[in-house]
Design goal:
402 residues; mainly beta; 3 helices; 33 strands
């Protein structure tokens, strides 16, 4: 009996996180070295705790240990300040699995804010990334930037000032972005070349474009789709585009609410869209020439459910806007489609009967607006429900929220 008890105790000890450490880092002298050392030496189950205060950093940080938590005292209390960063890289780079990032801020990184690459089952919770000088082309491209991962949960994050996308998820699978604020970025939230994503209950405001669901050619992972965009407030996205010249988002028109480009099986519904004066909702094919033989530039099976919208495009940034406004009585209808589809009558777009729309009626991918023949939208009504049971972050990630 005694031996059995001892064996059971030993097994329980090794199976529990009792051997994990909590490493507390205070701001002040040598904070760069002390924090990076803790990140290098961390082992599975360890928690690295940032005390309240401002950590003045001169170089980027990196984490490559599985199962580690990096947490602070709050997104406005523990601040990683990269204003004096010497290199041009990200503020924090994570390349390991099952990492949790919680309750701290990253300010003024020279490159991206927090990038996680190939980091499966990662949680971003109540993390803030900002460039304090406001929108500028010299700011880093991305605020929160998970890429090439399976299992991503972003909850309660705030990002502002990114010169590409505030919250960007690329080439990934099983994604949830919710309860977050993206403001004064070029793109508020972007889901790119990814599948099985749920974007919900976010406040997206003051950006050039609100929520973008893109698929681009020339990337290792392509054919994005299976994306649900619901219950978001997308408002006042009227900031002039400040992306560096040559970036794909440099072509996003000021006043774009939700844009779907070249994706498959996307459902947009139950959102509130106000003051997105180019187009509250836009569905388009990839507009440029490309040489990727595996790439499909057309949107497929896009469903626009009922959304609460204002009058629509009152100040569209299109060539010939004055004539368009006159033709449609002073405001373009809320749903805009470029009219391009993979095959004629392929059912590219389905729209709720209460959602009004218009089409550019383009006839060839890669042609400009000079080939447009605008007219009222004539598409099928929205179909039946979509099975989303395996969309979004895996349920196991929810248990790590606090």
């Amino acid at each position: 009996m005694i031996r059995t008890l001892l064996v059971a105790t030993a097994l329980a000890t090794f199976a529990s996180p009792a051997l994990a450490e909590t490493i507390t880092i205070a701001p002040g002298e040598d904070a760069q070295e002390r924090l990076q050392e803790a990140l290098i030496l961390a082992e599975a189950g360890d928690e690295i705790v940032l005390e309240a205060g401002r950590f003045t950093l001169t170089d980027g940080l990196s984490l490559d240990a599985d199962g580690v938590t990096l947490r602070g005292a709050g997104m406005h209390a523990s601040v990683l300040d990269f204003t004096g960063q010497q290199g041009a890289g990200e503020g924090l780079l994570v390349t390991s699995d099952s990492v949790t990032l919680r309750d701290f801020a990253v300010e003024n990184p020279k490159g991206d804010g927090i990038k996680s690459k190939g980091a499966d089952d990662i949680v971003y919770q109540r993390v803030r990334v900002t460039w304090t000088n406001g929108p500028a082309s010299t700011n880093g491209a991305y605020g929160v930037y998970p890429v090439e991962s399976t299992g991503i949960l972003i909850d309660g994050v705030e990002v502002s000032g990114a010169s590409d996308a505030g919250i960007y998820v690329g080439q990934s699978n099983r994604i949830t972005v919710r309860n977050s604020i993206a403001s004064y970025n070029v793109a508020g939230i972007e889901i790119e070349n990814s599948r099985k994503a749920i974007v919900e209950r976010n406040y997206v405001t003051g950006n050039t474009g609100g929520i973008l669901v893109f698929d681009l050619p020339g990337l290792p992972v392509k054919n994005g789709g299976e994306v649900l965009v619901r219950n978001n407030l997308v408002a006042n996205n009227t900031t002039a585009n400040f992306a560096p010249e040559g970036n794909i988002v440099a072509s996003v028109r000021r006043g774009t609410g939700i844009m779907v480009m070249a994706n498959d099986t996307v459902w947009v519904g139950q959102n509130m869209l106000y003051d997105n004066p180019t187009a509250p909702i836009m569905v388009i094919a990839y507009p440029m020439p490309f040489d990727d033989p595996e790439y499909n530039p057309y949107p497929r099976d896009i469903s626009i459910g009922f959304n609460s919208v204002d009058e629509g495009g009152t100040d569209p940034r299109f060539e010939g806007a004055e004539m368009l406004l006159a033709a449609f009585g002073g405001a373009l209808p809320p749903v805009m489609w470029d009219g391009l589809e993979e095959t004629p009558d392929s059912g590219t777009l389905m729209v709720h009967p209460e959602m009004k729309g218009w089409s550019l009626n383009l006839t060839e991918q890669g042609k400009g607006l000079d080939a447009a023949n605008p007219g009222p939208l004539d598409v099928g009504a929205i179909g039946g429900p979509i099975d989303i049971s395996d969309w979004g972050a895996p349920q196991a990630l929810e248990a790590r929220l606090q």
